């Protein structure tokens, strides 16, 4: 463009110069003098040469000027082009930053489509898809497709903007926005599924946090102790309900507005000093006195630093202080009580010095009160008693003394027997204290030892008496040990004589006897009667020995806390009883085994069968690929077989539920004609396949019945299925319904092969299936299900059949008033 302008300018200047020279030459050509003419020609030549030089110079300067302008303009255009390319790249980057489509129109061009065209086709191949993006009906829901088409039409015609939320046919969320920009119509389609999911997750997280805060606030409100939170300035920011009640405020808000403090200023200053001393290392704990709900209480105040201030709680320990004072008073009372006990008590500290003794201790050893008040050591007291010859004589007294003092290092209480020189017997218990030291209990058991000797003599007499009995007899004492056992008891249970002589506990005796009678429960009952503290009643149980012997065991409590065990051989009578019950038990176990098998196996079969049906439906719908003719036939056969098997399993489960008593009827008002028609629809395919006709005899005004509609339809379906199975092509099946004042009868009659009387008597039994020469196949549950459901309704089933004359099954349902049924249930 610059070069053309320069050439035109140079041509104009050259023409001017040539014209000027031509005029000048013409003027000079006029003189006639040759010399003058020659001179004039020379001057003219010089003028022409000068003009040409001037022309060339001007032309060069003009060319350089235009070239500089052209170069500068090219640079400016290149910079502008780079800026446009950068803007285009940024726009492309922003456009591709998310899944979206931009469609623009103007008045004279086709729509321009940019962006992720695959958005409209769920990421599938978008080849040629740009021409189909605006076919909204192919990838949006019908309602949304109509809405956006109307909105786009309004945008193109009137420039009306819009903003719509759409749903694609595969469930994605699409945002559509249209507007008019600079004379163009612009449509933006953007996928928002991920954004909505993130927003939903954020909302769920926020709701969870809010619920957590609400739960924490509710928990703090439920705490009976006052709880508060202070801000950084020390003012109350939040309190719970217990705090408001403690400061006698009508509500938490009132307590915060009025700034009611639970602790007075000196108490708060004490907490502040404690916190400053701890320098924030853990919570501050202080025991303070404050007025709570109008009464003075002792509080343990806990305050801890938080990000937004401090949090605190006040625990009422007034009762604890009261209990502590009561404990001290109780301890003083215990000391007074111990002083009244006949058992001598002496307490020594961890340095083995006497810190307490009662009056019985002084009287037992006849010690001087002044000596005991001097807090002598345990060793000094033993030496003093030995010097007074009040202890038994020991060959090595020092070793005996060290053994007594070793109780200070023991973990558990130690019991020993001291036999004094005056004939008394002391039971000495040395019990270590948890804080160190030792407590002695001296119990004079001289009288008890004498009584025990006389008791042992009496027991020997009883043992000799029991040994003469033929029945096994044993006596257990109140301590659970074997006191007496006659020879018959030891011989029958094969007890070791040494074990019997050691007076074993009842557990050891039972362990030895269980080798011959291993049943655990009778022995547990016997042990409870011997050692139990709650029950002192008699017991009668039965023991079975491994050799077949059966014993009737009787445990009878004795007045002195002992228990008498007697055994009687009842093997003969038990054998007769056992023979009668074994057969009954076998029958019951067989029935339980059958019910358990039906229940578990049926449920284990139905789960995989449901999967088979589901996947077969997917194959039949050809959602995963087209099927050929043979494959489609196989799929249909699988569906029919699976459906038949599912019906059998459901029938088995229904029967198992009926037997277990867990099947409940869902009664409602059931329209009889509609129920019959529903059952007919379920059998239409088989009727057409077998070329059978059905004659319905259902009066229009027969009305409704209060029953379980699902089970009534199942009853009719099973009756119709049996009628179809036992009918020949071209025959007729009759369905009849009649209503009386007391009941409703439904009957299904076929004109097929019929059945003899011996077969008709078994058709309602389970798993009784007779083909009778027909193509009918089944497991024999249909009529059994019918009878069970009818009887659950309180009705009855009758069957009429004869060979060659067909079969008629009639079901009678009693008419029940729904209101009366509800009142009876209540």
Record the strand order, biggest sheet.
2-1-5-4-3
Helical content band? 40-55%
Termini distance? 106 Å
Number of strands: 27
What percent strand?
A: 15-25%
| Alpha-carbon Rg, integer | 57 Å
- Estimate the mean pLDDT confidence: 77
Number of helices: 24
Low-confidence parts lasting 5 or more residues at pLDDT below 50? 20-32, 121-130, 820-826
Report what the structure shows.
- The protein is of the alpha+beta class and 826 residues long.
- The chain has 24 helices and 27 strands.
- It has a five-stranded antiparallel beta sheet with strand order 2-1-5-4-3, sandwiched between helices. A five-stranded antiparallel beta sheet has the order 7-6-10-9-8. Strands 12-11-15-14-13 form a five-stranded antiparallel beta sheet.
- Helix 1 (2-28) runs antiparallel to helix 2 (34-96) and helix 20 runs parallel beside helix 21.
- Residues 20-32, 121-130 and 820-826 have low confidence and may be disordered.
- It holds the Pfam family HisKA.
- Residues 600-817 form the Histidine kinase domain.
Summarize the structure.
This protein is an alpha+beta fold.
List the helices and strands and how they pair.
Elements: H1 2-28, H2 34-96, E1 100-105, E2 112-115, H3 142-158, E3 162-167, E4 173-181, E5 184-191, H4 193-222, E6 227-230, E7 236-239, H5 241-246, H6 252-258, H7 265-278, E8 284-292, E9 295-306, E10 309-316, H8 318-338, E11 344-348, E12 354-357, H9 359-365, H10 369-373, H11 378-387, H12 397-405, E13 414-419, E14 425-432, E15 438-444, H13 446-467, E16 473-476, E17 482-485, H14 487-493, H15 497-501, H16 506-513, H17 520-531, E18 539-544, E19 550-557, E20 563-569, H18 571-621, H19 629-660, E21 668-671, H20 672-690, E22 693-697, E23 704-707, H21 709-725, E24 732-739, E25 743-750, H22 757-760, H23 782-792, E26 796-801, E27 807-814, H24 818-825
Parallel strand pairs: 22-24
Antiparallel strand pairs: 1-2, 1-5, 3-4, 4-5, 6-7, 6-10, 8-9, 9-10, 11-12, 11-15, 13-14, 14-15, 16-17, 16-20, 18-19, 19-20, 21-23, 24-25, 25-27, 26-27
């Amino acid at each position: 463009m610059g070069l053309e302008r320069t050439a035109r300018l140079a041509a104009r200047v050259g023409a001017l110069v040539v014209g000027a020279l031509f005029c000048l030459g013409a003027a000079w050509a006029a003189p006639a003098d040759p010399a003058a003419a020659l001179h004039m020609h020379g001057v003219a030549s010089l003028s022409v040469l000068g003009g040409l030089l001037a022309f060339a110079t001007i032309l060069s300067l003009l060319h350089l000027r235009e070239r500089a302008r052209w170069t500068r303009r090219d640079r400016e255009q290149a910079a502008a082009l780079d800026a446009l390319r950068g803007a285009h790249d940024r726009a492309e980057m922003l456009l591709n930053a998310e899944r979206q489509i931009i469609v623009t129109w103007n008045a004279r061009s086709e729509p321009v489509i940019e962006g992720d065209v695959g958005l409209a086709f769920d990421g599938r191949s978008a080849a040629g898809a740009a021409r189909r993006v605006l076919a909204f009906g192919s990838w949006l829901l019908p309602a949304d497709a109509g809405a956006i088409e109307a909105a786009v039409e309004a945008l193109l015609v009137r420039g009306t903007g819009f903003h719509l939320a759409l749903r694609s046919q595969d469930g994605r969320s699409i945002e559509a926005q249209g507007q008019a920009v600079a004379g163009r119509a612009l449509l933006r389609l953007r996928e928002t599924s991920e954004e909505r999911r993130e927003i939903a997750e954020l909302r769920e997280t926020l709701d969870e946090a809010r619920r957590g805060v609400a739960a924490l606030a509710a928990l703090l409100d439920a705490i009976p102790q006052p709880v508060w939170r202070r801000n950084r300035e020390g003012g109350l920011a939040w309190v719970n309900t217990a705090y408001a009640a403690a400061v006698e405020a009508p509500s938490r808000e009132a307590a915060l507005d009025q700034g009611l403090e639970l602790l007075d200023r000196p108490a708060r200053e004490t907490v502040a000093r404690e916190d400053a001393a701890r320098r924030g290392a853990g919570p501050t704990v202080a025991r303070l006195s404050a007025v709570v709900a109008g009464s003075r209480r002792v509080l343990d105040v806990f305050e801890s630093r938080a990000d937004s201030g401090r949090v605190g709680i006040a625990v009422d320990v007034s009762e604890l202080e009261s209990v502590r004072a009561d404990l001290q008073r109780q301890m003083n009372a215990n000391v007074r009580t111990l002083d009244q006990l006949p058992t001598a008590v002496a307490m020594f500290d961890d340095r083995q010095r006497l810190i307490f003794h009662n009056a019985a201790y002084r009287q037992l050893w006849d010690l001087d009160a002044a000596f005991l008040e001097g807090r002598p050591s345990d060793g000094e007291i033993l030496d003093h008693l030995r010097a007074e010859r009040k202890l038994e004589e020991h060959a090595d007294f020092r070793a005996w003394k060290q053994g007594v003092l070793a109780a200070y290092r023991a973990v558990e209480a130690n019991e020993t027997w001291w036999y004094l020189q005056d004939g008394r017997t002391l039971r000495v218990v040395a019990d270590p204290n948890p804080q160190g030291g030792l407590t002695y209990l001296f119990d004079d058991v001289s009288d008890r030892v004498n009584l025990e000797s006389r008791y042992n003599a009496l027991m020997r007499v009883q043992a000799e008496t029991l040994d003469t009995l033929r029945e096994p007899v044993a006596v257990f004492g109140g301590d659970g040990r074997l006191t007496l056992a006659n020879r018959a008891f030891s011989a029958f249970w094969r007890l070791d004589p040494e074990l019997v002589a050691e007076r074993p506990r009842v557990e050891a005796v039972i362990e030895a006897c269980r080798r011959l009678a291993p049943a655990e429960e009778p022995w547990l009952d016997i042990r409870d009667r011997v050692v139990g503290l709650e029950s002192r009643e008699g017991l009668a149980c039965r023991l079975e020995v491994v050799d077949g012997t059966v014993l009737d065991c009787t445990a009878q409590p004795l007045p002195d806390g002992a228990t008498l065990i007697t055994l009687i051989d009842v093997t003969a009578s038990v054998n007769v009883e056992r023979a009668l019950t074994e057969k009954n038990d076998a029958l019951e176990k067989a029935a339980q085994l059958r019910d358990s098998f039906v229940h578990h196996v049926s449920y284990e079969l139905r789960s995989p069968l449901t999967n088979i049906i589901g996947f077969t439906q997917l194959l039949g719908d050809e959602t995963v690929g087209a099927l050929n003719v043979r494959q489609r036939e196989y799929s249909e056969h699988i569906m029919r077989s699976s459906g038949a098997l599912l019906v059998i399993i459901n029938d088995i489960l229904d029967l198992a539920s009926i037997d277990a008593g867990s099947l409940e009827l869902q009664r409602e008002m059931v329209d009889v004609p509609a129920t019959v028609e529903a059952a007919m629809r379920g059998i239409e395919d088989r009727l057409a396949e077998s070329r059978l006709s059905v004659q319905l005899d259902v009066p229009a005004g027969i009305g409704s019945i209060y029953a379980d509609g699902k089970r009534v339809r199942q009853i009719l379906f099973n009756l119709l299925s049996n009628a179809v199975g036992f009918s020949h092509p071209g025959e007729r099946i009759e369905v009849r319904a009649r209503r009386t004042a007391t009941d409703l009868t439904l009957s299904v009659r076929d004109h097929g092969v019929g059945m003899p009387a011996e077969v008709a008597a078994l058709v309602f039994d389970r798993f009784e299936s007779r083909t009778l020469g027909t193509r009918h196949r089944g497991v024999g549950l249909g009529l059994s299900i019918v009878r069970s459901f009818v009887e659950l309704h309180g009705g009855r089933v009758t069957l009429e059949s004869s060979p060659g004359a067909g079969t008629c099954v009639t079901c009678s349902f009693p008419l029940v008033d729904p209101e009366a049924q509800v009142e009876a249930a209540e």
